Amino acid sequence: MNSPSTSSNLQVKAQSSSLLGSDAATRTTFSDLWELGKPRLSMLSVITALVGYLAAQPDRSFSVLISLLLGTTGAAFGAAALNMWMEQDTDALMARTRGRPLPAGSLPPAIALTYGLFLCVCGDLLILWGINGLAATLTLFTQISYLLAYTPLKKKTHWCIPVGAIPGAIPPLIGWASAEGSISLLGWILFAILLTWQIPHFMAIAWTYRNDYAKANLPMLPVVDPTGNRAARQSLVASVTLFGVSFLPFVLGFTTLVYGSIALLAGCWFIYRAFRFWRSSERDGAARHLFFASIAYLPLVLAALVVDRWLFI
Fold first, then answer.
1. Contacts for 76 with CB less than 8 Å, ≥ 6 apart
2. pTM, to two decimals
3. What rounded mean pLDDT belongs to the chain?
4. What are 172-197's pLDDT values in tens digits?
């Protein structure tokens, strides 16, 4: 028989195991909720909204800045969670997404739905009350177009990528509206930069994961055209357009030659990578190079614009 001291030790160990299990479950749930918000994509929205705010150069307001950062974070994470809730069936069919919380079964769909709605509402209200109605309207439109236009179109047509580029390009306008209460020409140029940048960026992704998309019956352009010619051609056209749009801030006098030089060099490099994607016989490698070029291009050009506006204008 166990002695009283032995029984006590066993109870302590059992309680410790229970607490450790509870802590592990809490960490797992937090990790699932974090992943549900697509943090890399969502933080891109937050950062580009901040770029719009900083590039506008108004009198700075700390409370507006905090409302912008917290509001766009909530709105972006909430919309991403709702997107995952809507796409859980197709996510389960693709190798790169079947490990997400909903298709993996680690998080109940009802929790994801509630979590997404809660964050969306909180983000929208924070921007409405803490900033202004225009910024809140743009935030709401971003969510609606992302969830009710782009998300369902993914199952129907390859034109979902250009449509999805619209909500992806609105965050700088949210930042600009937060700073000025309206949107001036440079704000719309930022919108155009984000809009055109997304085409080659997502075409490179679509080509890389074309087999996954085919298994899930998602008609991305590389699935509709297995040669990749159309996707590559659209990427090249978009990168050339991006070059012209990104040069406008310098041409129109919103920036100095510092930004203009960086935009020129980065744009030529991006066009070259898109051209290689179009002409290369080894398209898989060219798509990866284009993807990494897009990842480097955007922060480089946006940072150059903000720094130029703050230091030289």
1. 37, 41, 42, 43, 45, 46, 123, 171
2. 0.91
3. 92
4. 999 999 999 999 999 999 999 999 99
